[in-house]
């Protein structure tokens, strides 16, 4: 078996008042979808931010494609092939939709994803390409955030709570897009509140509790009760 | 003087004020940094022009080919090595550091060039004028300055709103953390913005030295005019900055027409009046 694309070893990080990690070991292999579940404050967002270079961590604690990259600046990790759909989407309000998408390709990485391909994946964005992000619906904004990350042609795509605040029918569309993205060979590490959804989409699952991995394994092999126990600790 | 003439002369000097204000406007718009050394950097640009014309025998306009790149390089280094370290949630460190920088520049210029005032000679261009219908005479040089100001504002506007680099800069201004996830190094973007701002300071400085005498202590007043133009026009809006510069120039010209001693005060009163009526300026950047 090949080395994992992403590997964290004893990852320790702190973000804000609640999000802390106390030695998390996690891996994601090429073209795999891995889900991260856990209660609020369990450290899911902290883990994504630590992986993508927004938090200071020791070099050895994050390995990407075999290289120690922990604590490397975020903009350099993008150039190496790591992109993130941040929690709350974080679109740039003074940029048009198309400018938001184009900026995602700033690192100049070539690959499958181009503006035209992103518009193929999310046709509604082509119609709204000169609009400002604030005029879009939540689901459309999430599509922009995903498309923007894809424009970097990442090998690893980190998705933080992309279903949050969206209607069920929109969530279905967004997750269908994730399937199409994974089909291109992109590795996905997704944070998801909805455990059942995470189990359905991901091949493997990690459950975080209070900054530690409480449970991990193949999605299909994990029972509801095991997850509930790991999730709440009771 | 007749009213039309007063307005025309005010607009012309407003072009110079616009150039004072442009860099401030850009820097505040991009990184919410208030650069108290801005006026002194303009004066530094003026002295660079004076040194260049003397040492290389260039005309003042040709000296811009040296001054503008040199000021841009200085701006990049200044932001990258010093000012980036002061940025954060607390607005005080950048104020203190740029205030200190202002004193350092003034005293360094005083050491190097004495307190005597200096001027750049532009020959017959200083006195040539264009006769407009109605008996109004417009100096060619002030007209060139106004054209420069409009060109600088239009150029920056195009740079910010029509190029990928401009989009990256606006995104950095929106959200300096998320922009890093796009592969943009925000520290580099800030330094590039400061390079552009100081390049404009170089233009403003050389034209200022052609317009009037400068001395090492001339900076703070230019900072004040620049500030007033930025605030009148609305923070973060480049066309607003042009409008602000022109309004300040016109107010001063009107004041001077009433009583020469009233010139500077009239500008400040116009500034206060705008703050009273429209605290966010006349053309504030649209809320995101």
Automatic annotation (TrEMBL), chain A:
Q: Which GO terms describe its biological process?
A: L-amino acid transport
Cited Gene3D superfamilies: P-loop containing nucleotide triphosphate hydrolases
What the entry lists under Pfam families is as follows: ABC_tran
Highest rank taxon of the organism: Bacteria
Q: Which residues cross the membrane?
A: none
The chain positions of domain ABC transporter read 6-232
Which molecular-function annotations from GO does this UniProt entry contain? ATP binding; ATP hydrolysis activity; branched-chain amino acid transmembrane transporter activity
Q: Which UniProt keywords apply?
A: Amino-acid transport, ATP-binding, Nucleotide-binding, Transport
InterPro entries, per this entry?
Answer: AAA+_ATPase, ABC_transporter-like_ATP-bd, ABC_transporter-like_CS, BCAA_Transport_ATP-bd_LivF, P-loop_NTPase
Family indicated by similarity: Belongs to the ABC transporter superfamily.
> What's the name of the protein?
ABC transporter
Q: Which organism is it from?
A: Acidisphaera rubrifaciens HS-AP3
TrEMBL record, chain B:
Principal subcellular localisation of the protein: membrane
UniProt lists the family membership as follows: Belongs to the binding-protein-dependent transport system permease family. LivHM subfamily.
Keywords on this record? Amino-acid transport, Cell membrane, Membrane, Transmembrane, Transmembrane helix, Transport
User: How is this protein situated with respect to the membrane?
Assistant: Multi-pass membrane protein
What is the name attached to this protein's record? ABC transporter
* GO CC terms: plasma membrane
One of the protein's GO biological processes? amino acid transport
Which superkingdom heads the taxonomic lineage of this protein's source?
Bacteria
Originating organism: Acidisphaera rubrifaciens HS-AP3
The answer to whether UniProt assigns keyword Transmembrane helix to this entry is yes
Which residue stretches, if any, does this entry annotate as coiled coil? none
Which residue windows are transmembrane per the record? 6-29, 41-72, 92-110, 130-156, 189-211, 223-250, 262-283
Task: Cite a single GO MF annotation.
Answer: transmembrane transporter activity
Q: Give the subcellular location.
A: Cell membrane
């Amino acid at each position: 078996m090949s080395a994992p694309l992403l590997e964290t070893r004893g990852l320790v990080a702190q973000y804000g008042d609640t999000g802390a990690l106390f030695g998390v070991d996690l891996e994601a292999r090429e073209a795999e979808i891995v889900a991260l579940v856990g209660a609020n404050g369990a450290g899911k967002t902290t883990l994504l931010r630590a992986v993508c270079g927004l938090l200071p961590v020791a070099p050895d604690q994050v390995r990407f494609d075999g290289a120690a990259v922990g604590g490397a600046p975020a903009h350099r990790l993008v150039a190496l092939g790591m992109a993130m759909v941040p929690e709350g989407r974080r679109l740039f309000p003074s940029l048009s939709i198309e400018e938001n998408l184009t900026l995602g390709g700033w690192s100049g990485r070539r690959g499958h994803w181009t503006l035209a391909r992103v518009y193929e994946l999310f046709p509604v964005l082509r119609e709204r390409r000169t609009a400002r992000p604030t005029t879009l619906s939540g689901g459309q904004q999430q599509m922009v955030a995903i498309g923007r990350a894809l424009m970097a042609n990442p090998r690893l795509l980190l998705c933080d709570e992309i279903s949050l605040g969206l209607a069920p029918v929109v969530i279905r569309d967004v997750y269908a897009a994730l399937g199409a993205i994974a089909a291109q060979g992109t590795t996905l590490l997704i944070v998801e509140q909805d455990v059942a959804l995470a189990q359905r989409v991901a091949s493997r699952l990690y459950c975080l509790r209070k900054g530690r991995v409480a449970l991990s394994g193949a999605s299909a092999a994990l029972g509801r009760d095991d997850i509930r126990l790991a999730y709440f600790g009771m | 003087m007749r009213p039309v003439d007063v307005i025309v002369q005010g607009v012309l000097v407003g072009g110079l004020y616009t150039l004072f204000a442009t860099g401030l406007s850009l820097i505040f718009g991009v990184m919410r940094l208030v650069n108290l050394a801005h006026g002194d950097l303009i004066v530094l640009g003026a002295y660079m022009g004076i040194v260049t014309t003397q040492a290389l025998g260039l005309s003042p306009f040709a000296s811009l080919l040296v001054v503008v790149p040199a000021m841009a390089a200085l701006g990049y280094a200044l932001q990258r090595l010093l000012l980036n370290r002061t940025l954060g949630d607390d607005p005080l460190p950048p104020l203190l550091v740029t205030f200190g920088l202002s004193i350092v520049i003034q005293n360094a210029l005083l050491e190097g060039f004495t307190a005597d005032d200096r001027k750049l000679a532009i020959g017959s261009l200083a006195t040539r004028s264009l006769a407009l219908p109605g008996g109004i005479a417009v100096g060619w040089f002030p007209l060139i300055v106004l054209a420069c100001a409009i060109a600088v504002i239009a150029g920056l506007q195009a740079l910010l709103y029509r190029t990928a680099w401009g989009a990256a800069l606006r995104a950095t201004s929106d959200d300096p953390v998320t922009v890093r996830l796009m592969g943009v190094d925000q520290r580099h973007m800030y330094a590039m913005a400061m390079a552009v701002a100081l390049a404009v300071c170089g233009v403003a400085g050389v034209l200022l030295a052609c317009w009037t005498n400068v001395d090492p202590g001339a900076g703070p007043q230019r900072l004040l005019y620049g500030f007033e133009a930025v605030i009148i026009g609305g923070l973060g809006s480049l066309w607003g900055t042009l409008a602000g510069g022109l309004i300040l120039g016109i107010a001063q010209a009107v004041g001077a027409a009433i009583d020469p001693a009233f010139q500077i005060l009239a500008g400040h009163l116009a500034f206060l009046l705008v703050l009273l009526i429209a605290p966010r300026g006349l053309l504030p950047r649209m809320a995101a």
